[in-house]
Amino acid sequence: MPQPPPEPDFDACCGNGCDPCIFDLHDLAMDDYRRALRAWQARHPEAAATAAGGPILGPS
What we know:
The protein is 47% helix and 0% strand. By secondary structure, the protein is mostly helical. The two termini are 19 Å apart.
C-alpha cells in the first residue's frame, strides 16, 4: 500500500516566496500519492475495503 509523503514542518519554510515552496512540493507529492493509492485500491479491492488508516478514494 502506498504511504503518504511526510508533511514538512511549518518552520522549514523560509518565508521568501520560493517557487516552488516546500509546501507546493508536498502538495504535488500528495497528488502522486493519491493517484498511486487509487491504483493500488483498484488492484487490491479486498484489501482496500479493510485497510486500516486509509480512506477508500473514489475517482477524481
